[in-house]
Amino acid sequence: MARTSKLSENFFIMKRFRPVLWVMAALVAVLLVVPAQPAKAAPIAPGISITITPTNLLPGQAGYVFVTGGHPLNVSVTLDGQPMDVFWTGEGYLALYAFHHDAQSGEYELAVDATDPRTGQRLIQYATIVVQSYSYLNEELYLDSRLSERLYDPVLNAQETARLQDIYAARTQINPWGWPFVNPAPGAPITSQYGANRSYNGGLLESYHSGTDFRRYNGEEILATAAGRVVSAEFFEIRGNVVIIDHGYGIYSLYAHLSEMYVEKGDIVSGGQLIAGAGGTGRAMGPHLHFEIIVNGCPIDAMKWLELMPGYVEPLDLTDVSDDSEKSG
Q1: What CA–CA distances, in Å, run from 215 to 139, 160, 257, 276?
Q2: For residue 75, what is the domain's CATH number?
Q3: What pTM, to 2 d.p., does this model score?
Q4: Closest CA to 253 of 224, 216, 279
Q5: What is the pLDDT of residue 3?
């Protein structure tokens, strides 16, 4: 009798919970048939990274700060407490520092503060920028008397420099950042380096060489050093036919003494594009290319700027054996 009661009780329990058992069985079947999906973590914002290079320079050289880690970031950069312009390039945040040809040697404190407003991550980095003491060579140039003495007039030279500075004052953004910069006269040797302190024709004019001269024969091709927009393609009395390209963020390149100009103001050019033919127009005794890089209004050593590119191959330097006809006036 007791055994019969126990069986009845078990039957009642199974009948009562039969729907639950069916559901559990169905779930087990699904788990056995459907493969498990891997767990997906929530996306993680990239960490902030700061590059400052170079930190040891000579007068007439430049460097940059580059901050990556997503967009938008809040980025500020100061040099000796003075705020610097910071630009979004499409790949990161860029700030440029440049020191004039006659910059005082010493240490300059650079500070970078970057914050990601999405994650709250903040990175502060300091660097000491050292400008070393350096004296550029002195040169005495004697250019042909057929060149007008007006070309040595300090007032005319100052006026042309002011005209150029008006062009360099603009700050534009050209995305993406146009690195690397390339040699505008590939294969051509250098005939005069940046920075020499020059005296012309026995002291008619005292100045310094603001660019790099390349041996280039009349009509030989001149290439754009990087992508940008042509902001000048015109004649200057001293520099002759000149093309100036705005590469954005306060960086410009200048190509002088040209025989022909194949671009016009407003043209958009790509790095390595043919833009002109070499020549000897303006204050020059023979055909060559006078090439400049300008950063924040300062004409800097263009070759040192190009050397910031990994793998850069330095051109042959014939400065010590070239004559005055291959140097810019």
Answers
A1: 18, 24, 12, 15
A2: 2.60.40.10
A3: 0.81
A4: 224
A5: 42
